[in-house]
Design goal:
The protein starts with a helix and ends with a strand. The chain is built from eleven helices and 19 strands. By secondary structure, it is an alpha/beta fold. The strands form three sheets. The chain has an eight-stranded mixed beta sheet with strand order 6-5-4-3-2-1-14-15, with helices on one face. Strands 7-8-9-10-11-12-13 form a seven-stranded mixed beta sheet.
Length: about 375
């Protein structure tokens, strides 16, 4: 009887140990499977501070996209930033359009990292910057993929879709910009390069779903982009402006900032916040960085710019130039240059003096204090 009892106790002990081990294994399996799953859910978008230029890194799971790479002088900054993010291979590299402030550092990125696919629009450029990119692509034995509107691609568990360019030829290179909408669960991003009004209208006419939580403003917040209708269609909660401090173009422009302010769209801008990182968990967005404000013009001149100076403030001449004693300096009472530099529809750089026939009706892209300063920048004097 005692022997049977001992046998029964032994069996119960073995069963208890087996159940304990089984439960421990199950709990361990649940713990290890849940942790990587939460990491895989996250997507990061890095708006790298490259001044008056664009460079955006998207990371999800083990996949990486780079959209633009700043100016030529930013190539080391961009390459080092990617290395700090543990980038070894780029699944997609996108040169939105051939302007130097978007593809300047692209050749260095191509030379430094492995990559699978490179998208660039079907348009050439005569600049050395563009040729350097082509040489880097050739040396890596890669082939440029021309974007086809409607093409979708995966970045981890996020989906990208190409929405522009929608035509074969444009007068302005900005409108060749590759526009991408990125969807990660309930969260959406719209990256617009320097796409201007024409491209925006084409996307709206094609009835694309342009709605996005985060809009990267086109052309650094210039009034040439982000038209009221386009902003209504996108209807973002947040706007990111990639713009340089004290830039010569007075980006971002008043018209755009007033729209954002009126709609209560929260603004993040690289000239005030530096590099901006947004994290998505498919349901909510987390911003790493402080929110920006609605000031327009350069940071340095924002107070002067916002007071809407009139030509009545002009004193001509205020003083004589130090280098050329006969040259007039056109400034207001605060010392701000008042010669308007403008690029016309024929892509000619024209400067207008206060009091000129077209001065009042000209929307300046840059201001100068002297005619020689304007001429050195490649602008010619208006004929009237």
């Amino acid at each position: 009887m005692i022997r049977k009892k001992n046998s029964l106790q032994g069996i119960l002990l073995i069963l208890t140990l087996f159940i304990t081990i089984l439960l421990g294994a199950c709990s361990k399996h649940e713990e290890t499977s849940s942790t990587p799953q939460s990491v895989k859910e996250e997507l990061e978008v890095h708006f790298i501070d490259v001044g008056q230029a664009d460079s955006i890194l998207v990371r999800n799971k083990d996949a990486f996209i780079l959209i633009d790479a700043g100016n030529n002088e930013d190539e080391t900054l961009v390459v080092d930033y990617l290395k700090k993010q543990k980038v070894k291979k780029l699944d997609y590299v996108i040169g939105t359009h051939p302007h130097e402030d978007h593809i300047g550092g692209l050749d260095a990125v191509i030379n430094e990292f492995d990559l699978s696919t490179i998208y660039m629009p079907k348009v050439s450029h005569t600049s050395k910057t563009y040729k350097d990119v082509l040489i880097a692509i050739k040396n890596k034995k890669l082939k440029i993929e021309v974007p086809t509107v409607g093409t979708k691609f995966q970045v981890g568990d996020a989906e990208g879709m190409i929405l522009a360019p929608n035509a074969n030829a444009y007068e302005d290179l900005n409108n060749y910009s590759i526009v991408i909408k990125l969807t990660h669960g309930d969260n959406t991003f719209l990256f617009t390069g320097d796409a201007e009004k024409i491209s925006e209208e084409e996307m709206m006419n094609k009835r694309f779903d342009l709605s996005a939580d985060v809009l990267k403003l086109g052309h650094h917040g210039s009034h040439s982009s982000t038209t009221p209708k386009f902003l209504d269609r996108v209807n973002p909660q947040y706007a990111v402006i990639m713009v340089g401090k004290e830039n010569d173009y007075k980006h971002p422009h008043k018209e755009v900032m007033d729209q954002l302010k009126d709609k209560g769209i929260k603004v993040y801008r690289t000239d005030q916040n530096g590099t901006i990182v947004i994290t998505s968990d498919k349901k909510s967005l987390t911003f790493h960085g402080t929110i920006g404000d609605y000031r327009y013009g350069s940071e340095k001149d924002s107070t002067v710019e916002n007071t809407a100076i009139s030509t009545k403030d002009v004193v001509t001449p205020v003083e004589k130039a130090a280098v050329n004693s006969t040259e007039e300096i056109y400034v207001d009472t605060a010392g701000k240059g008042l010669i308007k530099g403008n690029i016309n529809s024929k892509k000619e750089k024209i400067y207008h003096l206060p009091g000129g026939a077209y001065y009042e009706g000209t929307e300046p892209e840059v201001w100068f204090k002297t005619e020689s300063e304007a001429q050195q920048a490649g602008f010619r004097k208006s004929k009237r």
